[in-house]
Please model this.
Amino acid sequence: MIARYTLPEMGQVWSEQTKLANWLKIEILVCEAWAQLGAIPPAALENIRNRAGFDLNRIKEIEAETRHDVIAFLTNVAEHVGEDSKYIHMGLTSSDILDTGLALQLRDSCDLILKRLHDLMEVLAARAREYKYTLMPGRTHGVHAEPVTFGLKLAGWYTEIERHIERITRARATVSCGKISGAVGTMANVDPAVERYVCEQLGLTPCKVSTQIIQRDRHAEYLTVLALVAGSLEKMATEIRNLQRTEIREVEEPFHSGQKGSSAMPHKRNPMISERITGLSRLIRSNALVGLENMALWHERDLTHSSTERVILPDSSILLDYILEKFTRVMERLVVNRDNMSSNLEATMGLVFSQQVLLALIDKGFLREDAYRLVQEAAMDAWQRRIPFKELLQKDERIRAALSADELERLFDYSYHLKNVDYIFARCGL
Model:
């Protein structure tokens, strides 16, 4: 991933230095396990512990010749250790190191993503409470429906992020799986005790059955969950983009002093971060598809997954970390225009109360179809002639015969739509 979208902590998890450090840690742990079984002399183990190391540039030099990253790594480690290097990688295949090391990176990525999700939840909770009773138009199909509150909208986002925390937590358990089982997973050349020891020391679960690799449904699950989180962030970012449109302008991304929205038009205040989140979310979701394709490998393993994983696993992790941080900052500083929410709510001149009128007529004994027809006639007239809905109802003899002036007036009360807000918030834990 390009540096522009890489935040320091997640970048470190996926750095070449961290990857190789994990490999070295695993190789040393394997040696410790073999030493416990009497296969490596104590003096040799001590020498390995003290002298084992690697040099990134030297590994690149060796790999240019060997065309094999793990062999290049092992060759460089051997240069540091000397004769006792013969005990390193004993009974293993490259994927024992690759996949177990990858599990550490995925687990650490989950931890960082979980922290980001909790931070976002905290911000959403605070802003939901702030705008708990702030009425705004509810929109279905992009058209005004009935009043809702901005707080309820944010409460919905809060619960969605809560579900993603559960999903990432499950995915963390799924990917925290190691294997030290040899060339095709039979453990023919490596004692099962080695795998148990290594995984225990690393905090991983030994893979119950492996081939040359850990099966890729685990990685597909990880990528799919990341895609789900990204999908939610795109949904939320798209909502902000829509609400920031000039003709709506109910919310706005923070616009900093000195910031520029357009090279040509000085007046522009564009939802640039939300648009960036939208675009990068699409990339994360596309990577999930590749992860699903990687599940179907030939026999005990082929290499079709390897090249793609070098891209999709770090990139998806880095990008989700980035857009989570960006969206959290947007929500912290989001500008909410209560006045525009209120004026937009009035734009349809009372049509948002049509269902209350419908239900009142039914309560007075009207058949639903008859009541619907009556209310719709007035509503369509209000649409076409831009006359307040209540005014048209007041002039309709059939309506007047069923509803008194006071009864009709009470139906046009915004507080009606707030009566269960507290209940919904309590159900969300807010």
Observations:
- The beta strands are 135-140, 143-149, 177-178, 205-206, 251-252, 335-336.
